[in-house]
């Protein structure tokens, strides 16, 4: 028996071939086309059903109240000490106020944003906002009950309005609530009043079916706070840009404009707070001084009546003229001392950290500055307390500063009173000198002078407070807003989202990426042999002599005479490759024996054996197909009565049987092909193969036939194939694509290296059309009639 040791191919280092890597994906191009088309269609649907969102912007300048100049619009009042009080906070603090929950809550309440309206019949269901045929006024809203209904999606109602009745139908439960126009309708969480929108213009297709949705105030406030964008255009400026993204332009514009309005309103209220407290203090002092002045005037009148005095001033005209400057200064000191005593009494009697009266006419600038700083801190603390608690670290820090400055103010007034007392004592000393000069004046004149002096002091103080009250009233009337509007809210013409170009580009990328990832992961996670490339990488030293394509269920697994199918062409190529592996010596007068085996069952070794035998028989060679799988014979798939006849096992077990009597003609339409069935399944196949009769059988068969094709048992499961492989001229090892695990190929490599196989070669079976190696998929259809493009595309997709 001639044997040829096929030289091992040199093992080459693995190199990444970019073209091969691309072919892994390009052969699945129908999936990429489908992915792109599907994603683009979904993108168009998304763009069609998604409500566009627009960007709305408003700009304001925060005025710096301390940087007043003579040319400013408020310069006329600056010299009067008006418009004082609240100083300028940092821009960051003002931005924090604009972002505050309290400010947005005021906006939501003012615009009634927790009640929204939708068109029930619209595809995108856009919010109607002011373009709604009806408005719903909410009375006595219970937030807790509404929260429960919102969780159950039972907070939306359809509005049905007729001439005599109004119906609110719950969209979730279909519960109806009826009422009359202009009268409240009792809902589970509120009383609702439905009124018609007088500005609504009825469209040509009629009044839309309106749905009203009631939302929790907290959730609406939180939603719009998250949408609000506030940016400082430059660090060195006070220009602030407000922004908001929303699907309804008018709504976003109203929110930003209302936010600026609420900010200015609060700022004006803060400014007027000091003025109101000052007005209250002045009114209180005017009542006290008026009472004191009445008492002094009464005493003066009684003094004159009792002493029958007419014109005492004419009698002491000379002394009065000399003492006029002294009296004027003494009155000023008395006035300042009275104001200082009054403020000290006010500070000591009222321990609350409240605003102090300002602009009372105290001449000491240090005292006025301390009062102004104290009032600024009190206003800042009160503003923070409106949205926080006493435990806030900022509030505690401000309370500490307020307490310290209050102590400083108290000390300043104590020091001022002490200085005024010293000045008064000095004036009293000077007065004693003057009094000595008028000693000759009767004591009645001196008493009258004292009464008149007290009257003048009270009158001056009374007139001074009246003037300050008018000035304070003027400051209340001319308070200017803190935020100057640069640009009222306006919206972009082009929607900022969704952006069609970006969406379509993303759809294109995703359409390509999804098939790519699927294919990549499929290759990455696959542990099966799928192509010639996988097989050659796993066993580089063993040649691959054939690739058998996958056969569809509707197609025959058997090769017929004059067959031009892809399956027949694959076996013809296998036959051609075998010619280079089987080299018959010149002195050999016997046929060639080809063993066909596999790792496990189900890999198609019987299919390969039968069709290889048929292919060889079609060339005019005499071929015998031997069923050597004694444990699980499968020739009956192609020869229906193969199991009913005696065969190899019977021949090996019974010395009386002859080979010629066991060989059967094949039902295949070819006289050159005969079958030697496996015979009866024996209990000891291995022992039968070890008999000397086995060698005799193969020698006799080689004398009788040109080719002996032996369908053996799987090599990994039993040792039968190894026992008889020494009789083979060539061993074909069948690997099934998509079925055989890559790690099982190592078993064939190790067995070949150990010498258990003779001239081993691989045959890759059940290969998908897209996984064929070089040459095969290009040549199988040569000479066939060309199919239409649609038919070709269907076949291509089926192969993928």
From TrEMBL:
<dbReference type="GO" id="GO:0004715">
    <property type="term" value="F:non-membrane spanning protein tyrosine kinase activity"/>
</dbReference>
<dbReference type="InterPro" id="IPR003856">
    <property type="entry name" value="LPS_length_determ_N"/>
</dbReference>
<keyword id="KW-0997">Cell inner membrane</keyword>
<dbReference type="InterPro" id="IPR032807">
    <property type="entry name" value="GNVR"/>
</dbReference>
<dbReference type="InterPro" id="IPR025669">
    <property type="entry name" value="AAA_dom"/>
</dbReference>
<dbReference type="GO" id="GO:0005886">
    <property type="term" value="C:plasma membrane"/>
</dbReference>
<keyword id="KW-0067">ATP-binding</keyword>
<comment type="similarity">
    <text>Belongs to the CpsD/CapB family.</text>
</comment>
<protein>
    <recommendedName>
        <fullName>non-specific protein-tyrosine kinase</fullName>
        <ecNumber>2.7.10.2</ecNumber>
    </recommendedName>
</protein>
<keyword id="KW-0418">Kinase</keyword>
<keyword id="KW-0547">Nucleotide-binding</keyword>
<dbReference type="Pfam" id="PF13807">
    <property type="entry name" value="GNVR"/>
</dbReference>
<feature type="domain" description="AAA">
    <location>
        <begin position="594"/>
        <end position="720"/>
    </location>
</feature>
<keyword id="KW-0829">Tyrosine-protein kinase</keyword>
<dbReference type="Pfam" id="PF13614">
    <property type="entry name" value="AAA_31"/>
</dbReference>
<feature type="domain" description="Tyrosine-protein kinase G-rich">
    <location>
        <begin position="452"/>
        <end position="523"/>
    </location>
</feature>
<feature type="domain" description="Polysaccharide chain length determinant N-terminal">
    <location>
        <begin position="14"/>
        <end position="110"/>
    </location>
</feature>
<dbReference type="Pfam" id="PF02706">
    <property type="entry name" value="Wzz"/>
</dbReference>
<comment type="similarity">
    <text>Belongs to the etk/wzc family.</text>
</comment>
<keyword id="KW-0812">Transmembrane</keyword>
<keyword id="KW-0472">Membrane</keyword>
<keyword id="KW-1133">Transmembrane helix</keyword>
<keyword id="KW-1003">Cell membrane</keyword>
<dbReference type="GO" id="GO:0005524">
    <property type="term" value="F:ATP binding"/>
</dbReference>
<dbReference type="InterPro" id="IPR005702">
    <property type="entry name" value="Wzc-like_C"/>
</dbReference>
<dbReference type="InterPro" id="IPR050445">
    <property type="entry name" value="Bact_polysacc_biosynth/exp"/>
</dbReference>
<keyword id="KW-0808">Transferase</keyword>
<dbReference type="InterPro" id="IPR027417">
    <property type="entry name" value="P-loop_NTPase"/>
</dbReference>
